Amino acid sequence: MIVAFSITPAGGDDDGGVSAAVAEAVRVVRASGLPNETNAMFTNVEGEWDEVMAVVKQAVDAVAAHTPRVSLVLKADVRPGFTGQLTAKVQRIEDALND
């Protein structure tokens, strides 16, 4: 499965920024060893249900350590029997664009 998720702390730093807290969530994802990528809006992670959801929970907990309230947006592509789809899905689009 692939999960795209975004975690937002309820409050920011003195300038209203949230990058330090969000960086803690990304650090958790990268340390998980699961295939992942981060873009401007979401972090994507691929793996089995239990391992992906455990990483999402750990990332939420990491952000919650910085703020009393956390917002989580999550979208999942559940497709049993398929792996490597984090890059393969994008490659199929690129191939279609080049046809």
Automatic annotation (TrEMBL):
Spans traversing the lipid bilayer: none
Domain Thiamine-binding protein intervals: 3-94
SUPFAM superfamilies xrefs: MTH1187/YkoF-like
Cellular component terms per the entry's GO annotation: cytosol
Pfam families assigned to the protein according to its UniProt record, in alphabetical order: Thiamine_BP
PANTHER family named in the record: UPF0045 PROTEIN ECM15
Similarity-based family: Belongs to the UPF0045 family.
Protein name per its UniProtKB record: Thiamine-binding protein domain-containing protein
Organism: Mycolicibacterium madagascariense
